[in-house]
Design brief:
single chain; 13 strands; 4-stranded antiparallel sheet; 352 residues; Aspartate Aminotransferase, domain 2; Aspartate Aminotransferase, domain 1; alpha/beta; 2 domains; 7-stranded mixed sheet; 11 helices; globular
Length: 352
């Protein structure tokens, strides 16, 4: 015990976001894109770095809005979708309001809620990690949370949420004041999304990112789409000049080249389906996925031991085996075809 000021009690007893960064030749643990951005995407910028960036990121927001048929005042951009979510919770969360999530889901939702002092109400998914529409709506009606988060497709399970669920939730939110946020970080890998539900008269926002389908995880750029009245309030909370000049410029250029970047999604989906079929031939439980990763569970061996054996072969996947609701599960991100083959070969050898 020292005489220095300690952090808040809820921070003191918590742990930070943790994903082991192990040195491995094949890194399939962080849901990153396997391909480097097109040559020249990050080169050739002539910017005045002695000057502050465009505080409102107006050109970037215009390009994002154009992509979705929205107006720029319906777009908020920040340093990755985590900052988007944090700014949203700083605006609409707090100790007097609650956030409902449905576990297991993206762990940062509850961690960011904790940091912003927003109490979390936990709903539970079915055994197959799906959400039952009636049970979910009943839970919302019972607790009446101010904020509701859905993750579609869900991380780390890979399933998209039922198409009718957001509409049902929005109907419920006509009976009391609340906002629904849908995290579509992996939306480009799915067959469907909820973008058409965005409207000025609906309390719905959707977060997306440049990190996954566009393959720009190192850029740290995410954005929120929603009604202008909501985006305006969020903009008041964001720090001044929070989005750097180079980030804005690369983001604009990436959007103008998004067709070639998103063509890579087709290759990733093809690899995901191929590897999923390979995994199903092994003694594993394999969950269907609409993302760039696959969740699986060994049926006759210890998952932690398999994870360690993979590392010994210089293959790194994500270990969820000790996470509540995901006991015994591992998750593999789709890499290049050769990386995926090395993963399958190593896993087959271990399971033999």
């Amino acid at each position: 015990m020292n005489n220095f000021l300690e952090p808040r009690e809820d921070i003191l007893g918590s742990s930070g976001y943790f994903s082991p960064q192990v040195d491995a030749s094949v890194r399939l643990n962080a849901n990153e894109a396997p391909y480097a951005p097109p040559e020249g995407l990050t080169a050739g910028y002539e910017v005045n770095l002695n000057r502050y960036p465009d505080r409102s990121a107006s050109k970037l927001r215009e390009e994002i809005a154009k992509k979705y048929g929205l107006r720029s005042n319906q777009v908020f951009a920040a340093n990755g979708s985590n900052e988007v979510i944090q700014t949203f919770l700083l605006t609409y969360g707090g100790s007097e309001r609650s956030l409902m999530i449905f576990k297991p889901t993206y762990v940062m939702h509850s961690k960011i809620a904790m940091v912003t002092g927003t109490p979390v109400i936990e709903g539970q998914r079915e055994k197959d990690f799906s959400l039952d529409v009636e049970a979910t709506c009943d839970k919302i009606l019972e607790d009446k949370p101010s904020l509701i988060f859905l993750c579609s497709p869900n991380n780390p399970t890979g399933l998209s949420e039922p198409m009718e669920l957001p509409e049902r939730i929005l109907e419920i939110l006509t009976t009391y004041k609340g906002i629904l946020l849908i995290d579509e970080a992996y939306g480009q890998f799915a067959e469907s999304n909820f973008l058409t539900l965005i409207a000025e008269d609906k309390p719905l926002v959707i977060s997306r990112t440049f990190s996954k389908a566009l393959g720009l995880a190192g850029l740290r750029l995410g954005y929120l789409l929603g009604p202008s009245w909501c985006i305006e309030e969020i903009g008041k909370v964001s720090l001044p000049y929070h989005l750097g000049t180079l980030t804005q410029e690369v983001g604009i250029k990436a959007l103008k080249n998004s067709v070639s970047l998103e063509n890579q999604v087709i290759d990733i989906i093809r690899e995901r389906d191929r590897i999923s079929e390979s995994l199903k031939t092994l003694p594993l439980e394999v969950w269907p996925s609409e993302t760039n990763f696959i969740l699986f569970k060994p049926t006759n061996q210890d998952a932690k031991k398999i994870w360690e054996e993979l590392i010994s072969r210089s293959v790194l996947v994500r270990d969820f085996s000790m996470v509540d609701g995901l006991e015994g599960c591992l998750r593999v991100t789709m890499g290049t075809r050769s990386e995926n083959d090395l993963f399958i070969e190593a896993l087959e050898e271990i399971l033999r």
